[in-house]
Amino acid sequence: MALRDKQGRPLVAVTGMGTVTSLGQGKDDTWAALTAGKSGIRRISRFPTEGLRTTIAGTIDSVEVEPFCAPMLSERLAMLAAEEAVGQAGLPEGDFPGALFIAVPPVEMEWPQREALAKASGENGDVTYKDLLKAAASGEFKPWHDLFIFGTVADRVADRFGTRGSPISLSTACSSGATAIQLGVEAIRRGETDAALCIGTDGSVNPESLIRFSLLSALSTQNENPEGASKPFSKNRDGFVMGEGGAALVLENAESAKARGAKILGYVLGCGEKGDGFHRTRSSPDGTPIIAAIKAGLDDAGVSPDDIDYINAHGTSTPENDKMESMGCMAVFGERMKDVPISSNKSMIGHTLTAAGAVEAVMSLLTIAQGRIPPTINHAVPDPSIPLDVVPNVARDATVNYVLSNSFGFGGQNTCLVFGAEPK
After folding, report:
1. Does the annotation mark 174 as catalytic?
2. Where in the chain is the domain with CATH 3.40.47.10?
3. Which entry of 198, 271, 351, 379 is annotated as an active-site residue?
4. Is 351 a catalytic residue?
5. Could you report the per-residue pLDDT of 214-242, keeping only the tens digit for each?
6. Catalytic: which of 314, 329, 379, 416?
7. What is the model's pTM?
8. The CATH number of 12-108+149-420 is which of 3.40.47.10, 2.130.10.10, 1.20.950.20, 3.40.980.10?
C-alpha cells in the first residue's frame, strides 16, 4: 500500500486514541455502553437547579478537581484522554515527538470566583475599578488569572506530555474537536511534523452555561426522564442536552508510524471546512455551507458519496440542526441517503460541545475497527421530514470501511472528517 494519497501528500495514520465521557473513563467503557444503547444523561447534582428550565446533563461526576470550574475539569479530562491515547500509541509520555492541537471551551471567570473577588475588593459588594486594580496588584488572585487564560490548559497539557513547539489552543464552537484534528492533519501533510496530539475537551456544565443556552432556547426541557431527553432525528425532539467529555487522537505520518512498528488504527483521509456567515446561531436555510463542507471532506479524501458506509451525525437533537443536517446529507448523497446508516452518539452522551468532534472521531474509528454501528436511541417517534436510516435504538453489525463524521457549530463553523480503514 502506498503511503501517500492521490494528491501525493503523506498519509495520516491514527496510532492512539483515548476518551472519557459520561458513559465511562476510557474508550473501551464508552464504546461498550454506546453500542449497548445506554445513556449517560442524568439529573445535575453538582449545583442547585431550582428555577432552571433544564436540570439534566451528561456530567462526568467521577472526576473531581479543585477548585471546581470549567478550565480545571476540561484540563483533567484532556489529561485522562491523552494518557490513554499516547499510551496506546507507544510513545513516551513526557517526550511526545510532535505538536499539540487542543480544542478547549471559551473561558471566563465563573461566579464563585467573581463573588470572592468582589468580597475581597470592595465593601458591601460595592466594587469600583480602582478596587479591582488594587486586588490585582496584591498578587493574591494571580492563580485565578492564570487559570482563566484561554491558553493555560494547552500549556499544562504540553508540559505534561512534552509536545514540540508552541501548543495551539482553538475554539470553533461545536466543531472545535474536529478542527483540532484537521489542524493536525494539515501540519503532517505540510511536513511540519511527523506526529500530532489532537485533543477536544469540555467540562463546562455549570449554571451560567446552562442559563445561556436556555436563553437561546437550545436545550431540551424534558427533565422528567433524563435518559430519554436527547432524541436526535425524532419528531418530538426539543433541544440538545449538554454533556462533558474529552478525547485525544495521536496522528502520525503513516510512513514514520510504520517505520517505528506502530499499530495503525485507521486513517484520517479527508477534512472539509466551510464557514457560514448567515447568523450567529442558525444555519443558512438553503444548507449551502453544510453541503459544501461535506463535499469538501469527500473531495479531500479522494472518495465519492458511494464509498461512505456510515455517517456519524452531528445530530444534536435540536429541531433545526437535525433538519439541516438531513437536508445537507440528502443533497450530497441523493437517493442513496435513505440507505446509508447515520446515527448520533449525542443521543447517549449529550452534546459535549468543544469535545464533540474529537469524541465522535474516536467512535467513528472504533466503528470501522469493530464493524458495529452505534444506535440513535430514544427514536420512538420518527420525523417524516427526515427519511433516513438513523439506526434506531439498537446497534447494528456491518462492514464499515469509510465513515463521514459531521460537526456543525454555532457561528457557522462546519467541519467534516472522513476516516478509513485504509486509503481507497
Report:
1. yes
2. 12-108+149-420
3. 351
4. yes
5. 998 999 999 999 999 999 999 999 999 99
6. 314
7. 0.92
8. 3.40.47.10
